[in-house]
Amino acid sequence: MNKSANTAFFDTLVRWISPIAIAPLDAIAQAPDRIVHHAKIVTVDAQFRIAEAMAMRGERVVAVGPNDEVLKLADGKTQLFDLKGKTVLPALIDSHVHATGAAEYEFDHTIPDMLSIADVLQYIRGRAELLVDGEWISVGQVFVTRLNEQRFPTRAELDSVAPNNPVYFRTGPDAALNSLTLKLSPISNPSGCGSTAKHYCDNSAKNARSTSNPIVN
Questions:
Q1: In the predicted model, what is the mean pLDDT of residues 150-167?
Q2: Which of 18, 38, 62, 71 is the most exposed place for a label (fewest CB within 10 A)?
Q3: Cβ-contact 65, 41 below 8 angstroms
Q4: What pLDDT does residue 154 have?
């Protein structure tokens, strides 16, 4: 198989791997077009089996099982792909996903459920007690619409539990900051911005001084 054809095949491979019912190997009437073998195929079936080989005909998976059993289904026209132990995953369909961020979210400690401002402040206070002064405390994906109070924590509230650590409470594109974070950032120190960003920083500083801005109140 030439390089472009090989690339096209693997580009579409995950479309064929989905949680489906596979016919018994002895019930396959026609030889498959393609067989992937010596792989780690995550079937996501009821038993969450990890199979070695998979046979396809057209855009259908027709068999999944051990290498020797699936390879027996091949004829002279079947294309064989030795994946040399590589993993094959089901098609993952999502309109918007941050896979690496989700994987690392609780990398070094468990994030508790937060249902209120009190929960948020308790978590931040606990992190401040564990971290040295000056280390950042970042709280992400705790959406204010899911908090009982339906609002951001205020700057004063964040200062009360972590006065010596910069706090960054973010819900996506929005964030609430404590005083130390503002002190360290160009938002309240526009002179720290480069000339190309001065207009943005000047406006940000003006907004940060506004008492109507819930991010810095």
A1: 96
A2: 18
A3: no
A4: 96
Question: Residue 74 is encoded by which pair of tokens?
Answer: 């091949």
Residue among 41, 39, 34, 119 at smallest CA distance from 74? 34
Quickly count helices (H) and strands (E) in the chain: 7, 10
Q: Which long-range contacts (C-beta less than 8 Å, at least 24 apart) are formed by 130-139? A: 131/165, 133/164, 133/165, 134/164, 134/165, 134/166, 135/165, 136/165, 136/166, 136/167, 136/168, 137/162, 137/165, 137/166, 137/167, 137/168, 138/167, 138/168, 138/170, 139/114, 139/167, 139/168, 139/169, 139/170
| Model-wide pTM > 0.70 | no
Confidence band, pLDDT 50/70/90 cuts, at residue 188: low
Residue count of the chain, please give it: 217
Q: Which domains does the chain have, with CATH numbers?
A: 3-88 (2.30.40.10), 99-184 (no CATH)
